[in-house]
């Protein structure tokens, strides 16, 4: 498959430019002709530039666009509408122009003989679970049900992302506001007051001298402070590329106070929800664990899931295999044990998914109150240090005058 740039004119005389991925230039001509377009120019695109452009366009396609596509296609297929007609209608009303082009390209591939799962597999905007469940739905003849499962699953993931974002708003605002006030105090207030004291012949105490040296450093090397967050982020990203350091970083996320409230419950919700939908779709438990391990996004959880998969493949019960790993709480082990005994494992995973999603939503609502004492104490200590550093020379001056 190669990327091609094309220029064409539609039936109304409007010029159209775009990028399309096909095996050869003849298939590009065939595709444009099937859309009723008059071709002006076709040339092979630079692969690097095409990849950058595809990444930029994919970034502009949101999860809600995928949810709407899966839900609408499920409804139309259930109503008996042919898949080509359904995709054509969905593409014509899609609000996102980048996603609209992808939908039209998917329709063309299906018209050429590809299945839906094969057609969407070449676009990284569709999550892996979408592709797999679409394939399972085509194999079992329940594609519309699989697409509805995908829509429900992605909506839960959207709610999960929104809950995490809400949980992090207050801490992020508090940290930025505190650091901004501290920097302003050190750069503008502290030097002026200290200069006045020095001019009056007051000997500065140790704490004040330390703050002055810190202020001078910030004034001289402000660009280092400005780029320090980006440097730290860059170093962390480099370290995360190596599996050993990535494991320790991810393990720390689920142990650090306050941070683990969000990260740990998010991982448990993601684990339970993905297994629920995969098992409900009829995918075997070992394949399900393999898929979840790839999408969970935490090396500590991934290792535990893969070891669990190996134990289950060797004949162990799922609950017994999970019990060997501390990352899985007792509630998860107990509910899965009940699900194995009663034969309703998917229902138990549904319960766990809803439980941890609700718990995460509650945490997002209470995060402000939870972290507020920590923020107040931290800000208070910082300002006490600043105020004491300023008042000590003033006290010495008053004592000297007395």
Outline of the structure:
The protein has 402 residues and is mainly alpha-helical. It has 17 helices and 3 strands.
Oligomeric composition of the shown chains: single chain
Query: Strand order within the widest sheet?
Result: 2-1-3
Distance between the termini: 87 Å
According to DSSP, the number of beta strands is 3
Q: What average pLDDT do the residues reach?
A: 81
List the total number of helices.
Answer: 17
Structural class: mainly alpha
Radius of gyration based on Cα positions: 29 Å
Strand fraction band? 5-15%
Task: Chart the SSEs and their pairings.
Layout: E1 2-9, E2 15-22, H1 25-34, E3 38-44, H2 47-59, H3 63-78, H4 83-93, H5 97-111, H6 116-121, H7 128-140, H8 143-199, H9 206-220, H10 222-240, H11 243-253, H12 259-280, H13 285-295, H14 299-313, H15 318-323, H16 330-342, H17 345-401
Antiparallel strand pairs: 1-2, 1-3
Helix pairs in contact: 3-4, 3-8, 4-5, 7-8, 8-9, 8-12, 8-17, 9-10, 9-17, 12-13, 12-17, 13-14, 16-17
């Amino acid at each position: 498959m190669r990327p091609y740039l094309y220029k064409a004119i539609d039936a109304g005389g409007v010029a159209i430019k775009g990028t399309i991925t096909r095996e050869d230039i003849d298939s590009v001509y065939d595709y444009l002709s099937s859309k009723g377009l008059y071709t002006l120019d076709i040339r092979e695109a630079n692969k690097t530039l095409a990849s950058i452009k595809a990444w930029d366009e994919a970034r502009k396609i949101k999860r809600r666009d995928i949810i709407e596509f899966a839900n609408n296609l499920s409804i139309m297929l259930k109503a008996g509408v042919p898949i080509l007609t359904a995709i054509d209608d969905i593409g014509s009303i899609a609000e996102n122009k980048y996603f609209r082009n992808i939908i039209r390209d998917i329709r063309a591939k299906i018209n050429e003989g590809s299945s839906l799962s094969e057609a969407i597999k070449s676009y990284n905007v569709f999550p892996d679970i979408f592709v797999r469940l679409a394939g399972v739905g085509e194999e079992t003849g329940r594609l519309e049900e699989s697409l509805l499962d995908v829509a429900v699953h992605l909506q839960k993931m959207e709610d999960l992302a929104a809950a995490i974002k809400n949980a992090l708003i207050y801490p992020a605002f508090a940290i930025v506001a505190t650091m901004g006030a501290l920097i302003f105090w050190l750069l503008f207030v502290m030097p002026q007051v200290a200069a006045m004291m020095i001019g009056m012949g007051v000997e500065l105490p140790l704490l004040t001298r330390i703050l002055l040296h810190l202020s001078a450093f910030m004034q001289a090397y402000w660009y280092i402070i400005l780029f320090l967050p980006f440097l730290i982020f860059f170093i962390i990203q480099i370290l995360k590329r190596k599996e050993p350091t990535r494991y320790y970083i991810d393990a720390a996320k689920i142990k650090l106070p306050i941070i683990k409230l969000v990260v740990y419950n998010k991982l448990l919700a993601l684990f339970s929800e993905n297994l629920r939908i995969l098992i409900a779709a009829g995918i075997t438990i070992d394949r399900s664990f393999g898929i979840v391990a790839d999408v969970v996004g935490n090396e500590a959880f991934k290792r535990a899931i893969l070891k669990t998969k190996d134990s289950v493949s060797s004949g162990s019960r799922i609950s017994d295999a999970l019990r060997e790993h501390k990352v899985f709480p007792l509630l998860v082990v107990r509910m899965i044990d009940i699900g194995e005994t009663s034969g309703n494992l998917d229902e138990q995973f549904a319960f766990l998914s809803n439980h941890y999603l609700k718990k995460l939503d509650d945490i997002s609502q209470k995060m402000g109150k939870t972290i507020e004492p920590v923020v107040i104490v931290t800000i208070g200590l910082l300002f006490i240090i600043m105020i004491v550093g300023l008042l000590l020379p003033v006290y010495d001056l008053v004592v000297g005058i007395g």
